[in-house]
Amino acid sequence: MKSRFLALCLAFSSCVLVAQIEEYVIWDADRDAKAVLPSGDSKGLEQAPGNKPGLALKAVYPKFDGKVEWPAVRWRAPFITSLDIRDWDYFVFQAYNPLPEKVDLGVFINGKGKFNEHLLLQPNAWNHIAVPFKDWRDRLGDNITHFDLFMTRPDKTYTIHFKKIALKRGAMPPDRLLKNAKYTIADFENELPKTFERNAVEVQLDREWSATGTSSAKLTYATSQDSGSPWPSYQFMANADNILGLDWRAFASLEFTTFNPTTNMIPLKVYIADVYGKIITQECFLSPGQVNTWTIPLDKNNLELAAMRQVDFYLSNPGEQYSFSIDNICLKAKSSEELNEWLQASQRIKGEVENLTPEFKNKYMNELDQKVQNLKNAMEALKNNNITAGQLQQITTAADDIDFWHKTHSRELDFAKIASQTARNYPDCKVGLAFADSMTKVMIQDLPLTNVAFAPKATLELARNEYESIQLVALGFDEPHEISVQVSELKNGNAVLATDYKTVSLVGHVKTEKPPYKAEYQGWWPDPLLHFQKQATVKPGEAVAFWLRFKTAENQVPGDYQGTIIVRQDGNVVAQIPLVVTVWDFLIPTKSQLDVCMDFRNHIRQVWGNDLTNERYNEILVDAVDLFADYKIDHDNIYRVLPQDPQKLQLPIDLLKRQVEQGVLRSFNMFYLATPRNCDKPDDPRVQQVIDRAINCLNYWVPILEKEGLLKYAYVYCYDEIPKQLFPVMEKVCKAIKEKFPNMPISTTAYDHSFGTDSELADAIDVFTPLTARYDEHIAQKAREQGRKVDWYICIGPHNPHANWFVEYAAIEARLLMGMMTAKYRPDGFLYYAITRWPLNKGPITEGPYTNWNPASFQTANGDGSIFCAGPEGVIPTIRAENFRDGLEDYAYFLELENRIKKLDQDKQDTAKEALQVPKELVENLATYSRDPALLRQFRRKLAQAILQAK
Q: Of 3.20.20, 3.40.1000, 1.20.120, 1.10.443, which CATH number belongs to 595-881?
């Protein structure tokens, strides 16, 4: 139920789905002679590609060169004359993508407010895009000044063709009956539908075979070599006559029937996409001579069913011509039981409101009660066998109305529910009190309080020598109150949790602006943890979080430690909440169990002042190094400059030895090894110059490091993210180093996606480090068999759905990446290019919850290269750093269980190994995973129990 305003836009001719559509054409290449491109390069109007008749505007988006971040095609007067879009449902346009890969394109509309949406253009095809306005219509208002079709920092030059731009609205004919609970898209009786696009596919009526009726459609797919298209397809999309911006919430599946008259199996694939770029793909292998009826479930977890866009029947790179017939493409309605789930959901929402205190119940119940009654009335149609399209639309509209009401009131309802529960348990408390997991970001303003709830007591579970945290949240109502939080002594019989092993920090917030990736919200996001501030004024409407962190000693007595969380309001104790911390009887190692290569950017004088004394400077530096060690991060610099004079290499010997003594150092980079990017020939004199400089440096430092006991930790990082064209140069440089220093590991993020298994770098590199999105566990295993390691890394990419830790991304992603994803895919290490990149900050954070910290670190990417911030006295952690460490500790659970299993009798090993399987519900793959902290807690508990039993 994504949007309030979407309508079912289906209608019928005699046999084909055709919507009743109203259209206002803003711009048409065949009608309008010019458009304005303020950035990028317009090549003007030319014959439309892709067998499209008429003209199209050719636009070239240049590769990002550090200057123009959002090249755009912009339309304004005379094409826009104070448009009022409030009565329209969709912004639609036609765009041709000539490339063999998908292309990210953004839509920006400027009016009284701003509208911004990203979508993916399908390859080698005309894309007919219908973007729903949702609740943006009222915000944009009645005066649109311009709209852009833009790209964000293109990684290369892209050419896109535009044909037509319009506003549309439409509705389903109310009297159309659903036959056998099915809604026919096409039955191919007597004519071919105009609502389908053909991409390297010939289509004709087949009167020799049909599933029902007298005819079907015969589809003949050309080979990719003949057509030039890697994915020839028969596409049902939005076009001039139809909006496939359909509301499919009332439908359970897409169905169709095929007949393969040939003697070969045909590998048909079906691609279904919504307007937001979410997709499902299903393979349908058409057996020779067989008739098959296919049912594809419409998984609401993968698709926004309220805003569907496209269905493709396609083949992948066909090497031969294929031909088959298709018939009866339809949507099957949900059963009465499934539709009744909407009513049950509305009753649950109503029940939540009924449980509120009278003050809040009276505020919300009348409005909600009427909406629930509307849905009940609409559901009466299910008692009839012959439900009409209009009646089905009434059900979805009424359900959507409740859903929209619930979402827009979600934060208010969360506040009211927590306030009611707090008042019953702590009558003197004038703020709401709730708890949130450490994997949850509690939004101080505006957004719903996801996974924030009242609880009569707080609980935590952890092993010995482990960190774990929980958040106490104070919600403001009628007037401001000063709130402070304290944790009492925690006792387990005579054993106690040491005082310095429990800390309270106010959660600070940073204000974000538009990033180069999709973010649901721009505004105040929780991130830095302010250990220097344990109280805050909680104002009406705010949700202020306090971070409660606990650590156990290596020799901590296992068992349940009990105490209280003490909440003071304006200086007076108003709540004492029971707290139980359970300590499991196994140990988490202090040192990271995964190689972690990260980069400390030294902004100490920039942030704390150029007038710092050397003594104070060194205090801040040493404290920072010790803090990083607490988070299992080595003091490192992966871009350490390789100087001409080896003596000028800035290796922090004393700090590295300090980390060895603390038992935390795993590795450090000696220097960054690379030739200039424009040096692409091995015989370039600069290549030998770099080799000589590197060997001289190693000749000087290797004996020193060996004497200091540091050599075994050293490695060389080289050739950051270079393309294949530079591999011959890289090979020469690295082999020269390996010849002189065969035991010195060399690591790279060069774009060798074979990890040395099929490239000239096989004998030159010890550790390959691909982006997580390019990690292939099978190729990685082959590389390991050949003696190399394969790490992985993240940076400004990848974006969601892959895990990353931008400020706006879910906190759990950092923990999953370092924990459960690492356990499942087993990279040998993790690399991250910076942890303290603070280019825009000239002073430390001094107070919260609203801070002065600018989170933009790499251009406008928030938190990229920066998982620590600056406090008044030194470096401070963030929620993301906490989850980074928690993930490494989760990974340690796996390794502990694996080690214990090896010592078990064979008959007990199989049972114990079952606990090592990361459930698909938690991590299916690197782009599909749960963001529910409860699932992770549940599986972590299962691991702990298996460890305790494996003795």
A: 3.20.20
Query: What average pLDDT values come out for the chain (951 residues) when binned by 10 residues?
Result: 29 33 78 53 74 85 83 75 69 86 86 76 78 65 80 89 81 55 84 85 95 94 88 75 62 94 96 82 94 89 78 93 96 82 87 84 86 87 71 80 85 91 95 98 95 96 98 96 97 89 96 89 97 97 98 96 98 98 97 96 96 96 97 97 96 96 96 95 96 98 98 98 95 98 98 96 97 96 97 95 96 98 98 96 97 91 96 98 99 97 86 91 95 98 95 78
Q: Which residue reads 């919260």 in tokens?
A: 848
> Which tens digit of pLDDT belongs to each residue from 563-573?
999 999 999 99
Q: Residue 364 and residue 369: Cα distance in Å, rounded?
A: 9
Q: Which residue has the tokens 């000063």?
A: 482
Q: Which residues contact 561 (CB under 8 A, 6 or more apart)?
A: 490, 491, 492, 495, 496, 497, 580, 581, 582, 583
Q: Pull the structure tokens for residue 365.
A: 């119940």
Alpha-carbon distances, residue 568 vs 419, 485, 550 (angstroms): 16, 6, 20
Helix (H) / strand (E) containing 884: helix 879-902
Q: Write the pLDDT tens digit of every residue in 793-809.
A: 999 999 999 999 999 99
For residue 105, CA distances in Å to 48, 62, 120, 799 come to: 19, 13, 6, 15
Match domain 413-587 to its CATH number in 3.40.50.720, 2.160.10.10, 2.60.40.10, 1.20.1070.10: 2.60.40.10
Output the pLDDT for position 82. Answer: 60
Strand, helix or coil for residue 381: helix
Enumerate residues 6+ apart whose C-beta is below 8 A from 929.
803, 816, 820, 821, 922, 923
839: which DSSP letter?
T
Q: Which value, to the nearest 10 degrees, does the dihedral of the CA atoms of residues 649, 653, 655, 656 take?
A: 100
Q: Where are the alpha helices (DSSP H) in 164-265?
A: 224-227
Two tokens at 330?
């339809």
Q: Which class in CATH covers the domain with range 182-334?
A: mainly beta
- HSE, side-chain direction, 13 A CA sphere, residue 778: 0
Residue 652 tokens, joined? 């922090």
What is residue 432's predicted lDDT score, i.e. its pLDDT?
96
Question: In this structure, is the dihedral angle defined by the CA atoms of residues 144, 148, 152 and 153, taken in order, positive or negative?
Answer: negative
Q: What is the pLDDT of residue 78?
A: 60
Q: Which residues of 904-938 are buried (b: 16+ CB within 10 A; e: fewer)?
A: beeeeeeebeebeebeeebbeebeebbbbbebbee
CATH code for residues 20-171: 2.60.120.430
CA 217-218-224 angle, to 5 degrees, is 125
Angle between helix axes 336-354 and 358-379 (nearest 10 degrees) is: 160
Would 20-171 and 413-587 be classified into the same CATH topology?
no
Phi, psi dihedrals of residue 529, rounded to the nearest 5°: -105, 115
| CB count in 10 Å sphere of residue 764 | 24
User: Which residue do the tokens 């440089």 mark?
Assistant: 733
Beta bridge partners of residue 313, listed in sequence order: 234, 270
Tell me the CA end-to-end span of the chain in Å, nearest whole number: 50
The residue whose two tokens read 């890289």 is 730
Please, are residues 563 and 489 in contact by the beta-carbon 8 Å criterion?
Answer: yes
User: In 49-173, which residue ranges form alpha helices assigned H by DSSP?
Assistant: 136-140
pLDDT at 185: 85
Nearest to 368 by CA among 398, 397, 395, 340: 398
Q: How far is CA 47 from its chain centroid?
A: 39
Cα 661 to Cα 327: distance, rounded to the nearest angstrom: 73
> Distances in Å between the alpha carbon of 522 and those of 108, 135, 202, 359, 784?
16, 17, 47, 32, 43
